[in-house]
Amino acid sequence: MDWGDLPFFLAVARHGTLARAAKALRTDPTTAGRRVQKLERALGARLFEHSPGGHVLTAAGERLLAKARAMDRLAAEAQAAGGAGAGASPLTGTVRLSVAEGLGSWFVARRIGAFSDAHPAVTVDLVANSGFLNPTRRETDLAVLLARPRKGPLVTVRLTDYSLGLYAARAYLERLGEVRRAEELTRHRLVGYVPDIVYAPELRYLDEIPHAGTAALRSSSINAQHQMIAAGAGIGVLPHFIAGMDRALVAVLPKIRILRSFWLVTHRETAAFPQVRAMMDWLKQAVAAERDLFLPGAG
User: Fold this and answer.
1) Residue 104: phi, psi to the nearest 5?
2) Residue 92 has what pLDDT?
3) Which alpha helices (H) appear in the chain, and where do they start and end?
4) What are residue 145's DSSP bridge partners?
5) What are phi and psi of 97, to 5 degrees?
6) What is d(CA 231, CA 246) in angstroms, rounded to the nearest whole number?
7) Handedness of CA 159, 209, 236, 170 (dihedral sign)
8) Structural domains of the chain in order of their starting residue, each with its CATH number
9) Are residues 161 and 297 in contact, defined by beta-carbon separation less than 8 angstroms?
10) CB contact at 8 A, 87 and 117
């Protein structure tokens, strides 16, 4: 028997229908029903009868409910006893978060300590690099993606929109002159991604800027691009949540604005895990609290 199926059984027993149980677990009714059926097969007994009013416990279901409730109480008491004093979070386990390199290093990594303060018994794996782990294949519990997935057993919410623009170091513009029109970009060195290994089409920023042409300095890493731009090597596109935190940088042609979105994605079954729900909630709140960092001037 898979002990991970018990929370689905308890939720259906408490709420009476798959729909209400799925809502409480932040998953979908199909997943909740499948996990209950899996538990029934493992035990060799029907746990619910279907009625016009919902799911009614069988005799076997009633017996399991008494044991499951007792186990649930013991687990909660053990977690509470192991917590760091009164008021400590009872959550345990590991949550793996896969995010784009820039968001991971410039935003999440600088704030993730607050999540750990609230949930000290949860281990966080922050995977922040070029490319993403795949929540459909259960490579990660959560992923922040650049595009909304179109298929797969996933729960997807828009985390935030964000803006990008052209930036350069003050020293670079003092040396080579300000850029007042897009046509003047042709006489400047540009920084960007390596075209044939860019891992998402949403990263082809220079294609959307008039007269930008081809980057002469290229990297698969947005952090490396930032370092090149900040060192005065050229002009490049950066998200505001990166460029806005570097006082050495100034906006170039600020009326040119590129908009993108971050999507928060998890597998439908993973979405039922308490530590995953807690990370989702924390991340949404952290981003919402600093909206101007992602969309300056949006209010």
Assistant:
1) -65, -45
2) 83
3) 6-15, 18-25, 29-43, 59-81, 101-103, 109-118, 170-176, 222-230, 240-243, 274-289, 291-294
4) 263
5) -120, 120
6) 12
7) negative
8) 3-81 (1.10.10.10), 93-160+261-294 (3.40.190.10), 162-258 (3.40.190.10)
9) no
10) no
SS3 string of 20-75?
Answer: HHHHHHCCCHHHHHHHHHHHHHHHCCCCEEEECCEEEECHHHHHHHHHHHHHHHHH
* Distance between CA atoms of residues 206 and 183, nearest Å: 14
Answer for the pair 289, 241: CB distance below 8 angstroms, yes or no.
no
For the chain (length 299 residues), average pLDDT per consecutive 10?
Answer: 78 87 82 89 89 88 83 56 56 89 95 94 88 71 90 90 96 93 94 89 90 92 96 96 94 95 90 89 94 83
Give the closest residue to 132 by CA, choosing from 111, 146, 116.
Answer: 146
Cα(90)–Cα(122) distance, integer angstroms: 9
DSSP 8-state secondary structure symbol assigned to residue 196: G
> pTM to 2 decimals?
0.69
In the chain, helix, strand, coil percent, each to 5?
45, 25, 30
Encoded amino acid at 59, one letter: A
Taking each helix axis from N to C end, the angle separating 29-43 and 6-15, rounded to the nearest 10 degrees, works out to 110
The size of the chain, in residues, is 299
What is d(CA 213, CA 273) in angstroms, rounded to the nearest whole number? 47
Say what the pLDDT of residue 84 is.
46
What is the per-residue pLDDT for 107? 96
